[in-house]
Amino acid sequence: MSSDFEAYEQDFGTATAEVTNKIGRIPKLSGEEKTQLVLNVDKQLEEVRELLEQMDLEVREIPIQSRAMYNSRLKSYKQEMEKLEKDFKRSRIAYSDEVRNELLGDDASSSENQRAHLLDNTEKLERSSRRLEAGYQIAVETAHQRLARERERETERGVQATDRAPRLLALLPKKIHALL
């Protein structure tokens, strides 16, 4: 299994190097050649995303003892992918502003800065949303585990188990607020 993961790692390294090279070339080109390169990079990024999905599936099949090491490697590859996508978005913004300038003949450097700022803020918002969702999921799981433990204790003591789910679930918003 790990040999498949390592093969995917090699493919990932090769693909990301090609994409990085092409992203760096986008601002230097113009016209149809630039358009084709943008489309090509977009297609390659999709292939890299699929490769990451395959790597994720492989990690799930690896024995638990070795899984942590592979998970950390996969996490760093995902971060590298996010950086590539961010660089590609920026190169596309420069590309679209260049086309706009050619058509309209005006300087849109402030527009480029605004778009870059908007993209950065959008990415921050998406990351925050993912963190909130993960925190909420942890809170729900914790509440369910706590409920199960309480029921086990009551059963062991011979006390008739009562339904404490409403009380535990009422604590859930407090836990979520604490995560923020």
From TrEMBL:
Alphabetical UniProt keywords: Coiled coil, Membrane, Protein transport, Transmembrane, Transmembrane helix, Transport
Q: Which Gene3D superfamilies match?
A: 1.20.5.110, t-snare proteins
Comp. bias (Basic and acidic residues) = 114-124
Q: Which GO terms describe its biological process?
A: Golgi to vacuole transport; intra-Golgi vesicle-mediated transport; intracellular protein transport; macroautophagy; retrograde transport, endosome to Golgi; vesicle fusion with Golgi apparatus
Please give the superkingdom of this protein's source. Answer: Eukaryota
Membrane topology qualifier: Single-pass type IV membrane protein
UniProt keyword Transport present: yes
Q: Per the record, which residues fall in region Disordered?
A: 104-124
- Put simply, this protein is called Vesicle transport through interaction with t-SNAREs 1A
Q: Which organism is it from?
A: Scophthalmus maximus
Q: What gene, per UniProt, encodes this protein? A: vti1a
